[in-house]
Amino acid sequence: MGSVSLKIGDGTARFKRASLCSSALNVIMLFSVLTTNLFALYAFTSSPQNQTVHHAHKNISLISEQVSLILREIDSSQRKLAQMEKELLGYENIDISRPNIANELKLFLQHHSLPLGKDSRTGITEMVASVGHSCEKSIDVLSQYMSYKLGGACPDDWSLAQKLILRGCEPLPRRRCLAKSVSKVGLFPFPLSLWKPFSDKIVSWSGLGCKSFDCLNSKKIGKDCVGCFDLVNGTERQRFIKARGKNDFLVDDVLALGSGGIRIGLDIGGGSGSFAARMAERGVTVITSTLNVDAPFNEFIAARGLFPLFLSLDQRFPFYDNVFDLVHAMNGLGDGGRAEKMEFLMFDIDRILRAGGLFWLDNFYCADEERKRILTRLIERFGYKKLKWVVGEKVDAAGTGKSQVYLSAVLQKPIRV
């Protein structure tokens, strides 16, 4: 399928490092307070009781200087600790003064003042570029991506852009060059386009190992994409309308659970777009989020007359709260690797799903009992109503003959007040 495994850092380690920094700061502040009190005690007890007013003023001045010195040290320590924490977490600003930075990247990252001054509605005074913080870790690749002829043809480097995204450099900066275009010969009108095979010429094969759909159909591209580009003779034609096991729910059965209120949906890591195609046949508009890992998923989905979204699962969904009637997810839900990353993703799914909407977890691969337990506990935290819940085994699609455990569920989001 089009989902990918993103391994960007270690979330748990990050929080531990942050805790170490906080602990160090607390120790320094405690030491400073004790030192201040000792200085004060020394100043007031070391002189005779009949000391002059001049000496008293002198001691007070000495104490003030010592206190000011300690406060400056505390402030300096806080700045150093904050810098250490930035470096540990990777939230360092991009230094555009480096000699190897492309001029277009420098221009894009510069702050641009608004021509009429402060905006009365938003209060902002300048436009700031939006670039992923992890781009700092791939600054050489990013600079290569931003090296092009202004106004000319963009380099044929979509794979370079995807490489940056997989490293967490998202969103990418805009570019001022003309993207390469491919002649879309042989496209069919909608809805005929949903299940008609396409010519190899409608997509760009640069950066890919396969150069034809026949080649793609002979390989296992992902756990959910085995022959998924074969719309005529493969199993893709029967998906979602004919069950191959108890974990396979049918689209008509799931739509019936929505009581006629399913109009728009999101398919997370939707492979070649067959789920969106089946929904389109039933008058439901579905956006399919996917990357082009080892296959031209986005172009293929668009050729079918459907809506692809080139987005990684580490990026916050670019949708407003409570807008989708249905969210469909398969194994891409667990591709983050760490439990924390799955939590962030689940909370974002909950954010965009409206109250009463359906979350369809479709054949989620449970590698072990721990993985299933983590997901089950996470789902229970949201208080969703379990309309369907099936845990079953089926043979690995890759042909190994091994049985694997899968979880399928249809959950309804509750109304929260």
TrEMBL record:
Residues 67-94 form a coiled coil. One of its GO terms (molecular function) is methyltransferase activity. The keyword Mitochondrion does not apply. It comes from the Eukaryota. InterPro entries: Prob_Methyltransferase, Put_SAM_MeTrfase, SAM-dependent_MTases_sf. The chain crosses the membrane at residues 24-44. It is found in: Endomembrane system; Membrane. Keywords: Coiled coil, Membrane, Methyltransferase, Signal-anchor, Transferase, Transmembrane, Transmembrane helix. This is Uncharacterized protein LOC104607476. It comes from Nelumbo nucifera (Sacred lotus).
